[in-house]
Every structure is written in structure tokens, then in C-alpha cells.
Amino acid sequence: KNEVEQSPQNLTAQEGEFITINCSYSVGISALHWLQQHPGGGIVSLFMLSSGKKKHGRLIATINIQEKHSSLHITASHPRDSAVYICAVRSGTGNQFYFGTGTSLTVIP
Amino acid sequence: DAGITQSPRHKVTETGTPVTLRCHQTENHRYMYWYRQDPGHGLRLIHYSYGVKDTDKGEVSDGYSVSRSKTEDFLLTLESATSSQTSVYFCAISAGAYEQYFGPGTRLTVT
After folding, report:
1. pLDDT in tens, B90-104
2. Binary contact (A95, B98; C-beta < 8 A)
């Protein structure tokens, strides 16, 4: 049983397309994180959110606490957005994090 | 970038040998974590620390031990390496209810 589920697992898009990656979780959380992992392995935090919506450049993250669901949107996708996007939640009762298995995004020029 | 390093970055070792991975931070963050990343599983917590000499187990702690004698260093030891411990190991740090910052990872191969 996975505390965090992501969909889709793999996604291929044409440059310029609008992209949505979904994350559902089953535990109580204090915060949800979206991470980016490029080929070569480095993991970078994109967003941390506990309610509502955040925007950074072409990236938008939303969360619905009641539905235990979050989405990551990429507008006007670009080949440099190709990476694995990982959803992670911080437990509401402790300091542990639970991770989704990631969504592998490929943006074709 | 958060000041977090891991050493070694790559290691090949034989089954049955002990292995120690080091995570070093310069941010003075209270929390430090060790994860392993395997295809199909995502990141899984091995152990974490919430202060000097304060550690706790994660979901995949069997075969691993940790130590934290200083705020800046968190060591992960594979007591007797097995092929199932071939993985990429990531260290992460956190100041608490804030973001996690990840190290560059250590690729470990157990032959």
C-alpha cells in the first residue's frame, strides 16, 4: 500500500503543451512537496504547500486538502522540463516524508 | 543551493563487507534523513535523525544502522552488504516544518 499515488507514471508531450501531473495521498499531512529529478539524479524542491495554490514561472501547484489531492501544472512546456516529478507528503503526526514513485516527463521539440 | 554533500559518490563493494556512507551539511539543520531510491519504489526512508544522537527507524531499516555524533554529520552503515542493497542513496536535511534539501546521491553497487 502506497501512501502517495501519482499519475500518470509516464508522460510524453510536444513542446508548448499544457501538462498536468496528479498526486493523491491517504495520510494526514502537514505539507505536500513537489520535487524535480533530472537525469543524473539531483533532486530539487519545486514547491511546498499546505493549502491553495502556488506559482513559480511556468509551474503551478495546487492542493485540495479535503480531497487529499494535488496537481502540478506546467504551462508552455519546454524540452528542458523533461525530468521525473515526484510528489511527497510530510506526515501530520511526525517528521517522516512519504514519496510517490514519480512521473517521468519527456517534452519533445 | 543548500550545503549538503555525500561521500563517496560511487562505490562498488563485495557481498558481506561493511560499508559506511557519509552525509555532511553546513546548514545547521536539525533533521537529517537517509533514503534509498529504487526503480518502481520511489524514495524510501531508511533512518532519520532529529538531533545529535537522536535517531529513528524508517520503513526499510533492516540491515542498516546510523550514527549522528555531530549536527553536521549523519553516517549510514551497511553492516554486511547484500546485493539487495544495491541502490542509489540520498541524504536530505530539513529545518523542521520546511522543505527538504537533498544531497547529490551515492550510487552503491554490491557484487
Report:
1. 999 988 767 889 999
2. no
